[in-house]
């Protein structure tokens, strides 16, 4: 069976190089175009879906909307889960990544961004960026509302969504698309391909580029590949383990 993962198109904060996390920013013009291109390449490759999963953040939701619209699949069920939200970036949310590196050093910023167990500085609950202030998250328990997260924290909630909802759908033969975020998809790929903490540090998933996983009956990956119109994906973004198929 095939599972399609897609990171949202470029957002306005990707463009401005800001730590985003749970900040609910829009797609850039380029991001909107990437979503339309993704739909086109999915259609060209004959892919179809029975159900879609996304986060509660509009950059992922809008990417999915555009894809479903372009594919004439707006009627399929869409499950929106906070557990697929981007990794919470704590007190770094809204800061420019380059300026933060100038202040704290490249090495520290690299650790915050890519070390699996390192958490960025926490928000306080008084901070306007604390998700507990948003009605969007009114149904979450206090212990579920993040003040910051490392990739392991994110992986834990992503895998809850995976096991509770996505796995049963896949096992029922449904064709699933997941429109989510750089770090939620890194967490899922880490799990599916059993990648080490060091390995996952070097994996960056490009925006708006469908990543197809072919899974066996037990949902073990057989092979995986990106789909793009010209057969290429952005320079420097090809994760080592994805350069060739694993079969
Ligand atoms: O800012 C973010 O939320 C993420 C994704 O854009 O950034 P990073 O690549 O540093 O994990």
UniProtKB/TrEMBL annotation:
One of its GO terms (biological process) is gluconeogenesis. Substrate binds at residues 7-14, 20-21, 59, 86-89, 97, 113-114, 182-183. Its EC number is 5.4.2.11. InterPro entries: His_Pase_superF_clade-1, His_PPase_superfam, PG/BPGM_mutase_AS, Phosphogly_mut1. It is an enzyme of class 5 (isomerase). The active site is at 8 (tele-phosphohistidine intermediate), 86 (proton donor/acceptor). CDD domains: HP_PGM_like. GO terms for molecular function: phosphoglycerate mutase activity. The record marks 181 as: Transition state stabilizer. It catalyses: (2R)-2-phosphoglycerate = (2R)-3-phosphoglycerate. Gene3D superfamilies: Phosphoglycerate mutase-like. Pathway: Carbohydrate degradation; glycolysis; pyruvate from D-glyceraldehyde 3-phosphate: step 3/5. Keywords: Gluconeogenesis, Glycolysis, Isomerase. Belongs to the phosphoglycerate mutase family. BPG-dependent PGAM subfamily. PANTHER family: PHOSPHOGLYCERATE MUTASE. Catalyzes the interconversion of 2-phosphoglycerate and 3-phosphoglycerate. This is 2,3-bisphosphoglycerate-dependent phosphoglycerate mutase. It comes from Turicibacter bilis. The gene is gpmA.
């Amino acid at each position: 069976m095939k599972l399609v993962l897609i990171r949202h198109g470029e957002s306005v904060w990707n463009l401005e190089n800001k730590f985003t996390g749970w900040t609910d920013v829009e797609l850039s013009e380029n991001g909107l175009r990437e979503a339309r291109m993704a739909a086109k390449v999915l259609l060209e490759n004959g892919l179809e879906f029975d159900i879609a999963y996304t986060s509660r953040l509009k950059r992922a939701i809008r990417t999915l909307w555009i894809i479903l619209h372009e594919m004439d699949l707006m009627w399929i069920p869409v499950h929106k889960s906070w557990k697929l939200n981007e990794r919470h970036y704590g007190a770094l949310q809204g800061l420019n990544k380059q300026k933060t590196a100038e202040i704290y050093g490249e090495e520290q910023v690299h650790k915050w961004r890519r070390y699996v167990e390192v958490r960025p500085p926490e928000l306080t609950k008084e901070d306007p960026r604390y998700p507990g202030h948003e009605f969007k998250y009114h149904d979450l328990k206090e212990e579920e509302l993040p003040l910051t997260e490392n990739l392991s924290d994110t992986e834990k909630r992503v895998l809850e969504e995976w096991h509770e909802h996505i796995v049963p759908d896949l096992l029922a033969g449904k064709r699933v698309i997941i429109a989510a975020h750089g770090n939620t998809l890194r967490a899922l790929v880490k799990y599916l391909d059993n990648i080490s903490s060091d390995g996952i540090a070097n994996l960056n998933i490009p925006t708006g580029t469908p990543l197809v996983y072919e899974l066996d009956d037990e949902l073990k990956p057989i092979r995986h590949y990106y789909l793009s119109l010209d057969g290429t994906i952005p320079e420097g973004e090809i994760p080592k383990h994805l350069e060739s198929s694993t079969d």
